[in-house]
Amino acid sequence: MKYDLSNNSQVLSITELPRSERPRERLFELGPQFLSDEELACVLLGSGTRGRDVRSVARSVVAYLDGLGGCSQPDPQQLLRVEGLGAAKAAMLCACLELGRRRCVSVKKVARHPSEIFNVIRHFGDREQESFLSVLLNGAHEIMGVNVVSVGLVNRSLVHPREVFADALRLRATAIVIAHNHPSGNLEPSQEDLMVTEMLIKSGKLLGIRVLDHLIFSSEGYLSMMEAGRFFAF
Questions:
Q1: Number of domains, the chain
Q2: What is the C-alpha separation between 170 and 163, in angstroms, rounded?
Q3: Has residue 118 been placed in a domain?
């Protein structure tokens, strides 16, 4: 039996979990698209170290990748700073991500409906903290990338237009869809959500980059502020 001292909660090792809850078994039973980022990282890593179990290492790897945003590749030297991650596993993670990037770069997804945006970002829905995202679109409404703008409560001090539109300007995107998860599962936008939305729509107009929608989502579903008629107020 192991304990996660960071939150004083009891944590079972992978081998102590029922087979139906183990990441590798779940991948074969359900398919990789139904696994969380942490579970996928567990499958890649295979095992942890004597001082740190694989789920703890996987959690740190996912946090590092989230910090990069969706438009940047990991630095193998930076990955080596993750406790419990050696050169072999850091190299393997970088190689897997680069191979996936090369295979997917020619198959751009066209976002014609909020549900298609949700399918791209729904894996962020199981995060314990709110993640604010910007989904970049070109003139044909093809998805160019997903950028993690901030992690934490969504407010105007954390969600700054400079960060939201940085990658859109760099990659010459013509539009973005903003989104953030509600860990509680309640998809109703807060007053702060509405204020942030209004601020970003106005900023986008000045920059010539349209904000097409704001999705509030969980792992189970989403609310589109455009579909709900909330954009008409702006």
A1: 2
A2: 11
A3: yes
Q: Give the DSSP letter of residue 72.
A: S
Q: Given the DSSP bridges, would you call strands 9-11 and 143-151 parallel, antiparallel or unpaired?
A: unpaired
Q: Which of 69, 104, 139 is the last residue of a domain?
A: 104
Q: Which residues face 133 on adjacent strands?
A: 148, 179
My answer on whether 162 and 67 are in the same domain is no
122 and 219: one domain?
Answer: yes
CA distance 197 to 159: 10
Q: Which helix (H) or strand (E) holds 166?
A: helix 161-170
Instruction: Give pLDDT tens digits for 40-51.
Output: 999 999 888 877
Question: Token match 């298609």: residue?
Answer: 116
* Range(s) of the domain holding residue 40: 2-104
Q: What is the pLDDT of residue 159?
A: 83
Per-residue pLDDT tens over the stretch 127-169: 888 889 999 999 998 998 888 888 876 655 578 899 899 999 9
User: Taking the complete model, does pTM exceed 0.70, yes or no?
Assistant: no
Residue 86 falls within a domain, yes or no?
Answer: yes
